[in-house]
Amino acid sequence: MPSFDEVLKEAGEFGRFQKRVFFLLCQTGITFSSLFASVVFLGQAPDNYWCRIPGAAELGELCGWTLEEERNFTVLPLHLGNRSSSGECERLDIVWDTSVSCTSLLARYSNHSVGNLPLTTCHDDWVYEQPHSSIVSEYDLVCGNAWMLDLSQAILNLGFLAGAFILGYAADRYGRIIIYLLSCLGVGVCGIIVAFAPNFTVFLIFRFLQGMFGKGTWMTCYVIVTEIVGSDQRIVGIVIQMFFTLGIIILPGIAYLVPTWQGIQLAISLPNFLFLLYYWVVPESPRWLLTRKKGEKALKILHNIAKHNGRYISPHYSEITISNEEVSNPSFLSLVRTPHMRRYTLILMYAWFASALIYQGLVMRLGMVGGNLYLDFFISGAVELPAALLIVMTIDRVGRRLPFAISNIVAGIACLVTAFLPEDIPWLKTTVATLGRLGITIAFEIVYLVNTELYPTTLRNFGVSLCSSLCDLGGIIAPFLLFRLAAIWLELPLIIFSILAVVCGLLVLLLPETKGISLPETVEDVEQLSSSFGKCGKKRKHRDTNSYI
């Protein structure tokens, strides 16, 4: 009986139908990357703000002050008396006297130096020149509350982590496309609520949920694209990530043109509602249908693919081979029960963790060195395009494993060299750092493809989602690790990044080469990879199968 890959070859492995589905699902990468990196622009630090004194509004009304005059009369004396204070995080702790003159508020303290006046910490009464430009000014995430901005990104990554477990499991149990559509709906609805959140608690709750659903859209669309093409066309798994990069490049343009954080939030959330139209044009993965013993539906979809591709499936392909492996709900134990699956899972989990921590760390480090945020962010995104092009040009020639290892090692060496380059050669320091960013981007993109190719269809979505959950853990840790270590020595995070990357490069050499192999359908297929697809690329032994009639 013909296997799924044999029937797919008859229907067309990457014809007009797959190209259309591929292009449509690629748009998910743009919206997901915008969500992924949105905190950079949603959380921009306000340029000008100060701590308002109690009763300042009443004083302003009584004295007829403008905001600028209020600042001059209430903050400037503090700065003059205490040069270390700018009036942003503390204020003078005195009773303001307006009985003499609105311009002589400190008359009763004329016998004391302004520098000796008592100070107190500002808690919840700041004034911003642009009060709705970012979530920082919206929810007072300044001074002692500044850590809450890092918390908002950690909560988003925590949502990604939850989505990897919950929606990854659901996609393997209930189907790829239904979970994709529900996730798109969830991202859109939660995104709107985030934009109009009345307080920071509501903001965090729905940002977590948006992250969870966002992870569902990205991982599920990636798996669908990989499963509907032939083994020689799985490079589309790399190309789809170019749209992730495209989202990174577009985001600063959106942020530059839209003046408020609510507008930016809506701009990256509302397009998800358009993806609901895919219900009529993107089918369920036929590979998944076969694993759920639904061969008739899978064959019907394959006939439809063939029709749109201008191909014809022979009548004797009326039955498709189905594995004897019993259909079961995916679990973590399924990924570690057998020796090779266990080794692959642990290595891939570390690779996801290291890639995400280093990638996000290098992106956030860019903001620490100053410069034009919009231009620097655009350039950092543009640097990622050559990474995808290099992968496309080499991965089907030399395989996956070697570029995977080399890119990690190059990133590690570049980070180490950057840490010790002198500051008075900025062009060289920037060039080497860019090489590190390029290397870790290549590694980050390859891990998606390798992870997909190493897991059987019965566990693929769950396995990819579970392993990539370590990516989200790395994202949670990255901001805290970066800023804490940078406080000790600015370049210390680069040393840690270097160690993580080199170790990862060595570990991935223990993975099997997956170039040109058919996607494994069962755990047994995965266990045979090392022995049946070594360097010589020998054909895998036939598994015990029966047919669907």
UniProtKB/TrEMBL annotation:
<feature type="transmembrane region" description="Helical">
    <location>
        <begin position="237"/>
        <end position="258"/>
    </location>
</feature>
<dbReference type="GO" id="GO:0031966">
    <property type="term" value="C:mitochondrial membrane"/>
</dbReference>
<keyword id="KW-0812">Transmembrane</keyword>
<keyword id="KW-1003">Cell membrane</keyword>
<feature type="transmembrane region" description="Helical">
    <location>
        <begin position="264"/>
        <end position="282"/>
    </location>
</feature>
<keyword id="KW-0472">Membrane</keyword>
<dbReference type="InterPro" id="IPR005829">
    <property type="entry name" value="Sugar_transporter_CS"/>
</dbReference>
<dbReference type="GO" id="GO:0015872">
    <property type="term" value="P:dopamine transport"/>
</dbReference>
<feature type="transmembrane region" description="Helical">
    <location>
        <begin position="178"/>
        <end position="198"/>
    </location>
</feature>
<dbReference type="GO" id="GO:0005640">
    <property type="term" value="C:nuclear outer membrane"/>
</dbReference>
<dbReference type="GO" id="GO:0016324">
    <property type="term" value="C:apical plasma membrane"/>
</dbReference>
<keyword id="KW-0406">Ion transport</keyword>
<dbReference type="GO" id="GO:0005326">
    <property type="term" value="F:neurotransmitter transmembrane transporter activity"/>
</dbReference>
<feature type="transmembrane region" description="Helical">
    <location>
        <begin position="488"/>
        <end position="511"/>
    </location>
</feature>
<dbReference type="GO" id="GO:0008504">
    <property type="term" value="F:monoamine transmembrane transporter activity"/>
</dbReference>
<keyword id="KW-0813">Transport</keyword>
<feature type="transmembrane region" description="Helical">
    <location>
        <begin position="154"/>
        <end position="171"/>
    </location>
</feature>
<feature type="transmembrane region" description="Helical">
    <location>
        <begin position="344"/>
        <end position="362"/>
    </location>
</feature>
<dbReference type="InterPro" id="IPR005828">
    <property type="entry name" value="MFS_sugar_transport-like"/>
</dbReference>
<dbReference type="InterPro" id="IPR004749">
    <property type="entry name" value="Orgcat_transp/SVOP"/>
</dbReference>
<feature type="transmembrane region" description="Helical">
    <location>
        <begin position="462"/>
        <end position="482"/>
    </location>
</feature>
<dbReference type="GO" id="GO:0051608">
    <property type="term" value="P:histamine transport"/>
</dbReference>
<keyword id="KW-0539">Nucleus</keyword>
<keyword id="KW-0496">Mitochondrion</keyword>
<dbReference type="InterPro" id="IPR036259">
    <property type="entry name" value="MFS_trans_sf"/>
</dbReference>
<feature type="transmembrane region" description="Helical">
    <location>
        <begin position="402"/>
        <end position="421"/>
    </location>
</feature>
<dbReference type="GO" id="GO:0015874">
    <property type="term" value="P:norepinephrine transport"/>
</dbReference>
<dbReference type="GO" id="GO:0015651">
    <property type="term" value="F:quaternary ammonium group transmembrane transporter activity"/>
</dbReference>
<feature type="transmembrane region" description="Helical">
    <location>
        <begin position="21"/>
        <end position="42"/>
    </location>
</feature>
<feature type="transmembrane region" description="Helical">
    <location>
        <begin position="374"/>
        <end position="395"/>
    </location>
</feature>
<feature type="transmembrane region" description="Helical">
    <location>
        <begin position="204"/>
        <end position="225"/>
    </location>
</feature>
<feature type="domain" description="Major facilitator superfamily (MFS) profile">
    <location>
        <begin position="99"/>
        <end position="516"/>
    </location>
</feature>
<dbReference type="GO" id="GO:0016323">
    <property type="term" value="C:basolateral plasma membrane"/>
</dbReference>
<dbReference type="InterPro" id="IPR020846">
    <property type="entry name" value="MFS_dom"/>
</dbReference>
<dbReference type="Pfam" id="PF00083">
    <property type="entry name" value="Sugar_tr"/>
</dbReference>
<dbReference type="GO" id="GO:0006837">
    <property type="term" value="P:serotonin transport"/>
</dbReference>
<protein>
    <recommendedName>
        <fullName>Solute carrier family 22 member 3</fullName>
    </recommendedName>
</protein>
<dbReference type="GO" id="GO:0006811">
    <property type="term" value="P:monoatomic ion transport"/>
</dbReference>
<comment type="similarity">
    <text>Belongs to the major facilitator (TC 2.A.1) superfamily. Organic cation transporter (TC 2.A.1.19) family.</text>
</comment>
<feature type="transmembrane region" description="Helical">
    <location>
        <begin position="427"/>
        <end position="450"/>
    </location>
</feature>
<keyword id="KW-1133">Transmembrane helix</keyword>
<keyword id="KW-0325">Glycoprotein</keyword>
